[in-house]
Amino acid sequence: MVMTNFKKNDTFEAEVIDLTHEGQGVVKIDQFPFFVDNALPGEQIKMRVLKVGKSYGFGRVDEFLKQSPSRVTSLNLDYLRTGIADFGHLIYPEQLKFKHQQVVELLYKTAHKPNYPVLPVLGATETLRYRNKAQVPVQMVEGQLTTGFYRKHSHQLVSVEDFYIQHPEIDAVILSLRNALRTVHVKAYDEQTRRGWLRHIVVRRGYHTGEMMVTLVATSAQLPQGVDTVLEQLKENFPNIKSIQLNINKSTGSFILGKTFKVLYGKNYIQDTMLGKTFQISAPAFYQVNTAQAERLYQTAYDFANLSQEDIIVDAYSGIGTIGLDLADRVAQVYGMEVIPQAVEDAQHNAKLNHIENAHYEVGTAEAIMPQWLQKGIKPDVIFVDPPRKGLDEQFIKAATATNPRTIVYVSCNPATFARDVLRFEAENYTLDKVQPVDLFPQTHHIELVASFIRN
Ligand SMILES: C[S@@+](CC[C@H](N)C(=O)[O-])C[C@H]1O[C@@H](n2cnc3c(N)ncnc32)[C@H](O)[C@@H]1O
């Protein structure tokens, strides 16, 4: 019988038998599972019970009795506590094995495909300091404006100066800004009292160009005294900064960005290149955070598509047009759709910037626009989809498959929703062909993949 009369602070000696997809160790005491931070499979630990629920509990490591040879012992544990690097305690080759196994298991459990031959994960060369974007919360800690990251599942700020997986110039801008804002006594927003001005600092940096954009997310358009001088100094110290913007977010919710942007310095975008094409990226638009690995991801997507010069292509969930514009020279026409209007403006501008005349982008949801294109008689040979974490909408899948493309190439940042969508494509007579995970997020539990479906 499963024993459930555990109490807080009970201690047990146990072996860690597994890892959850978010990087917690799994321990079973009398069949009852506990999830334990900073514990790796194969490790023997003395575990202290923190919390007990009906069917599982949480524990913490009081002492390691035996550590795993795959453990990174030098990791600053704040990176685990905040989730900045929730796999950072595991050596990189083991991270890749675990991510591969996760995709195999999801295809088995959700899509009923035992032992699917998922290709080995394309690992990154740069496994640290690779992120081209930071979104850093700001809070008053002991009376001082502080930048850092929230402790997992909370809004309690842990002060961080070295963000470990972000480009060092991004960290330097955040630190310099924090120090200067302290000198002019800017107050961070307080979620309880709803007072204070600054909520987040968002920094983007083009991987190939080095161009930087700094966005201050604040509660009002009125700059507190001294901020204009701080920003003047910042752009002098960091000549790579080409854009400084203010984003107004008055809400009480947890969305980082509000709807209104105001340019304080320079342009309302920065530029970067991907696979040799130039892209304008505006503040609200999506741009993959690991450019080097995203280039390998897109290259794999093109290889899976077997493109020919006569092909008509749909680039669904197109963002600023990266997937469609990088391949436009190799095909007849590209049609893209995307829900964020500024991203579509970027895509249209990016087509011009790269002298591309055969790419057309529309604002709207993929699930609304794909049925319209079906009605209009657009007949794509290949459809690329790159949805957010929630995956594809059923209405989109029905309309997309009804246009009868020979191949559908699916770029996914969430293997769980991808596995669900595999069943939906199979119901419409498309068979899963190749699955290639690509690690865009070293040191974290996130995994990206590209897959192809072939018409039966
Ligand atoms: C993972 S990003 C991919 C963007 C682009 N393909 C790239 O590689 O940079 C997903 C994109 O889908 C957009 N999006 C979210 N929901 C959408 C929907 N229902 N219809 C169309 N686009 C949507 C987001 O704004 C975002 O730009």
UniProtKB/TrEMBL annotation:
Family annotation (NCBIfam families): rumA (TIGR00479)
UniProt keyword annotations, A-Z? Methyltransferase, S-adenosyl-L-methionine, Transferase
Q: List residues binding S-adenosyl-L-methionine.
A: 288, 317, 338, 386
Biological processes annotated in GO: rRNA base methylation
Record-stated family = Belongs to the class I-like SAM-binding methyltransferase superfamily. RNA M5U methyltransferase family.
Q: In its keyword annotation, does this UniProt entry include Glycoprotein?
A: no
EC number of this enzyme: 2.1.1.190
Q: Which domain of life is it from?
A: Bacteria
Write the lineage as a comma-separated list: Bacteria, Bacillati, Bacillota, Bacilli, Lactobacillales
**CDD domains linked:** AdoMet_MTases
**Gene Ontology terms for molecular function:** rRNA (uridine-C5-)-methyltransferase activity
Task: Tell me where the signal peptide lies.
Answer: none
Protein name according to UniProt: 23S rRNA (Uracil(1939)-C(5))-methyltransferase RlmD
UniProt-annotated catalytic positions:
413, 413 (nucleophile)
Query: TRAM domain location, by residue?
Result: 5-63
Answer whether the UniProt record assigns the keyword Mitochondrion to this protein.
no
Tell me which Pfam families the record gives.
TRAM, tRNA_U5-meth_tr
Question: What is the enzyme's main class?
Answer: transferase
